[in-house]
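Researcher: Structure prediction, please.
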Amino acid sequence: MSSMRRFLTGSPLFLCLCRGKVGVKEIMRFLNASFYQFSALEDPATWAKELRRALRAFDVKGTLILAPEGINGFLAGEPAAVRESLAYIQRQAPFAKIDIKESESIDIPFKKFVVKVRPEIVTFRVPGHTPLQAAAPRLSAAELKSWYEEGREFLVLDTRNEYEVRLGKFKGAQSLNLSQFVELPAALAPELEKFRGKPVVTYCTGGIRCEKAAPYLRHLGLDAYQLDGGILRYFEDAGGDHWEGECFVFDERVAVDAALKATGAALCPKCQGPVPAATPECIHCGEKV
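Model: Predicted structure follows.
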């Protein structure tokens, strides 16, 4: 759990939340938008400079990560300012198809606007394995729901961290007990054979991690697919069928249900793990909450 706590508190998306600090009926004032796109960038540093200059004029807060494989970002602020920022980004050819997920909050969860250049937009550290070189087939929410209801034989692999998995997952999903996504290749190696022989549907919250993982699984010889848009798009398009529990999100809601409504979950004051509402003790460390 300590590694999970370091991950959360070191993330720009971290919010120090515990029970009772945010009222369910509070008026939501600010818009939060997370987005990404895998797109080849010849000069990420130049794009970083341009986006830093342009978006500062909109007075938004958050983080953008640029890498040779694309863009990953989270912006927050007044709704009009966030939408103007997103529109500007989408007018740039490499980012015209950014995949956007929105949420609302009563506060802006960032103190400043930061643009970073990194080797990858989501850290995986497996050279040569990126969706730009070999993308995996996408499975829509409707298709995954149909597979469940037809009784089709397939496996489901959760590529999220274990503290997320404990809060909720797809029916029958398997996980690799990850504390960080970068651990997936090593964690998968001893488990590889049990995923052979059937289609493997990979998923994550919004799509970026499974979009990175699924091509790697196909490189290893697995019949891997990625759930297009992740859990959140599944909720939007297919509801909660075949989902069990809640979905952890990196904003002040902590977790949402299949209607994309806050569940009342909170972060444990001791380990910062997500805890379902009305749960007397932390499901990660046992602390009373």
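Model: Confidence is low (pLDDT under 50) at residues 1-25.
Researcher: Thanks, that helps.
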